[in-house]
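Intended use. Records like the one below are meant for learning the mapping from a protein sequence to its folded structure. Do not use them to infer anything beyond what is encoded.
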Amino acid sequence: MKRIISLFASFFLVQILGAQVTLSPTVIASAGGFEQGGDISISWTLGEVAVTTLYGDNLILTQGFQQPYTIGTSINLNEVIDWNIKAYPNPVREELMIQFDLKRTDDFWIEIQDVTGRTIDLKQHKSVKPGDILTIEMAEYKYGIYFFKIYTPDRTQMRVLSIRKI
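Structure written out for the chain above:
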């Protein structure tokens, strides 16, 4: 409780005084720990599932598991992202439908990962046309959450979907 009050007081002073403060990444978890010995240290969390990321003017809060550094995908701002996708039903039992909203025919890769980041499947789909619907068989997958990374062959444009298998 004292730590929360201290953080709040620090934030309040920063806002009033206009000072600039840099905070190291911090984690509040239901289980885990930190150990250090010699030149090495390790910290871990246990049983946390990523929920959401919240953005503020000078703050990023990622709820869920511990992340030691930012992992992201850069996008070339000179390129226009001219496609979108819809996936349904979500949650899925048997078949997942992925509908492409495109301006032109293009090639795409679909990579399916489990929650640990392990790639379960990777397939290239050539000549996907505007409005095409791809069917992904999900009946053999275990119950859980899967991440579908759908990207162009040059990886300059990517969409990531979270799909729940029930």
